């Protein structure tokens, strides 16, 4: 079926089943000979809005990494979120969403999904589960953006299933190298593949993975009907980036932990948010939920917007830019980027202060990053 991980894989690496090429060719054809081959069998492809050989090879890679039976690629992370919500919800249903999730997710739920008749019910993922009656989907993040809170995935999977709902986990910040939510009881995993999966700030993509064949088929039909299918060349870039994912995540995590420890000793920082620090509120949970590191994201509280803006202007190695997960270190202010969509009241409720500075730690020399941090604080 579309999105099935049975696409040709050899030695853990997808290859072109026709030529044996190590780098799977980019198939740019929009249409294919239809509908039957000379021997009377059905052609595997019809139209590239449905699926494409370039997509399927990368979907097979992702399914293998995720421990999933089915993975599907989308044109962006937001497109994947939309497909998931519109597949699993109908007007009148309740979507329980963790407080403090990515601002773009919150904006979609508030401005689009709620207008479609779905009740959006925010909840604190660090309290005893108590889901609203009628909940059909529970949405959490493996690590939240930007405060880096870590939820107990098995706990919320159990709560969702007891309520007759499904659990979806946005595991963008963890990547499949640090967390596999499906093995913890989740029904669906979402990634903004633009971030760590791509890893080079050169491709926009989204992904959904599941072990539920019926759900995978429904997601495929949603992608086909709505049209947010990933471009073949973008799929190629994504697949190329994924080849170095393990090496990059090891470096991201090690450098972020070291930088967090260094920042904790620097003056002028009100708080350092990093789940790998013993003082982080979710450190104990993070040790259970994340394996192989705590990720490459680090958030500093500099107290005021003015100080945060000054820090961003003074750094030289760390690039002032939105997004995350690339080989280069990036700095952004959540109030201006990830949570610019959010209302001041919702930011306050979620603890998103004006002085937060989010750093996506890249793979540069650690000494250069520490020196740049000091430069920004000077």
| Number of helical stretches of at least 4 residues | 12
What is the CATH domain class of the largest domain?
A: Alpha Beta
Q: Percent of residues in helical segments? A: 25-40%
Largest sheet: 7 strands, mixed
Radius of gyration: 21 Å
Q: Determine the mean pLDDT.
A: 92
Count the domains: 2
Low-confidence stretches: 5-13
Structural class: alpha/beta
What's the overall geometry? globular
- What's the β-strand tally? 14
Following the backbone from N to C, one meets helices and strands in this order, namely: EEHEHEHEEHEHEEHHHEHEHEEHEH
CATH topology of the largest domain: Aspartate Aminotransferase, domain 2
**What would CATH call the homologous superfamily of the largest domain?**
Type I PLP-dependent aspartate aminotransferase-like (Major domain)
**Largest sheet: spatial strand order:** 3-9-8-7-6-4-5
What share of the residues does DSSP label as strand, in percent? 15-25%
Distance between the termini: 57 Å
CATH architect. name of the largest domain: 3-Layer(aba) Sandwich
Could you characterize what this model shows?
- With 378 residues, the chain is of the alpha/beta class.
- 35% of the residues lie in helices and 15% in strands.
- It folds into 2 domains: 9-242, Type I PLP-dependent aspartate aminotransferase-like (Major domain) (Aspartate Aminotransferase, domain 2), CATH 3.40.640.10; 245-377, Aspartate Aminotransferase, domain 1.
- The chain has helices at residues 53-66, 77-88, 103-113, 153-162, 175-178, 213-226, 232-242, 245-264, 283-289, 305-314, 344-349, 366-377, and strands at 9-10, 13-14, 70-74, 94-98, 119-123, 135-141, 166-170, 188-191, 206-210, 271-273, 297-301, 319-320, 330-332, 356-360.
- The strands form 3 sheets. The chain has a 7-stranded mixed beta sheet. A 5-stranded mixed beta sheet has the order 10-11-14-13-12. Strands 1-2 form a two-stranded antiparallel sheet.
- Helix 8 (245-264) packs across helix 12 (366-377) and helix 10 (305-314) packs across helix 12.
């Amino acid at each position: 079926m579309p999105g099935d991980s049975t696409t040709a894989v050899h030695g853990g690496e997808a290859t072109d089943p026709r030529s044996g090429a190590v780098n799977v060719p980019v198939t740019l054809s929009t249409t294919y000979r239809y509908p039957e081959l000379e021997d009377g069998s059905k052609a595997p492809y019809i139209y590239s809005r449905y699926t494409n050989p370039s997509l399927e090879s990368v979907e097979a890679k992702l399914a293998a990494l995720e421990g999933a039976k089915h993975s599907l690629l989308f044109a962006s992370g937001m497109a994947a979120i939309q497909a998931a919500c519109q597949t699993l919800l109908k007007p009148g249903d309740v979507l329980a969403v963790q407080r403090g999730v990515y601002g773009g997710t919150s904006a979609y739920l508030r401005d689009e999904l709620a207008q479609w008749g779905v009740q959006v019910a925010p909840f604190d993922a660090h309290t005893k589960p108590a889901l609203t009656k009628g909940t059909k989907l529970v949405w959490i993040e493996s690590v939240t953006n930007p405060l880096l809170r870590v939820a107990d995935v098995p706990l919320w999977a159990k709560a969702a299933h007891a309520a007759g709902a499904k659990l979806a986990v946005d595991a963008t910040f963890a990547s499949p190298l640090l967390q596999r939510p499906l093995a913890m009881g989740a029904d669906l995993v979402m990634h903004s593949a633009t971030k760590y999966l791509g890893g080079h700030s050169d491709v926009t993509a989204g992904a959904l993975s599941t072990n539920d064949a019926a759900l995978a088929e429904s997601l495929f039909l949603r992608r086909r009907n709505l049209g947010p299918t990933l471009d073949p060349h973008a799929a190629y870039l994504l697949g190329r980036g994924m080849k170095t994912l393990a090496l990059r995540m090891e470096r991201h995590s090690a450098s972020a932990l070291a930088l967090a420890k260094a920042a904790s000793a620097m003056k002028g920082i009100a708080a350092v948010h990093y789940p790998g620090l013993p003082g982080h509120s979710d450190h104990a949970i993070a040790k259970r939920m994340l394996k192989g590191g705590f990720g490459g994201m680090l958030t500093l509280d500099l107290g005021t917007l003015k100080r945060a803006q000054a820090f961003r202007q003074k750094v030289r190695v760390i690039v002032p830019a939105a997004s995350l997960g690339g080989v280069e270190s990036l700095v952004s202010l959540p109030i201006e980027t990830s949570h610019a969509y959010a209302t001041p009241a919702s930011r306050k409720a979620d603890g998103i202060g004006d002085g937060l500075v989010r750093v996506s730690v890249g793979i540069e020399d650690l000494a250069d990053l520490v020196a740049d941090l000091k430069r920004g604080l000077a």
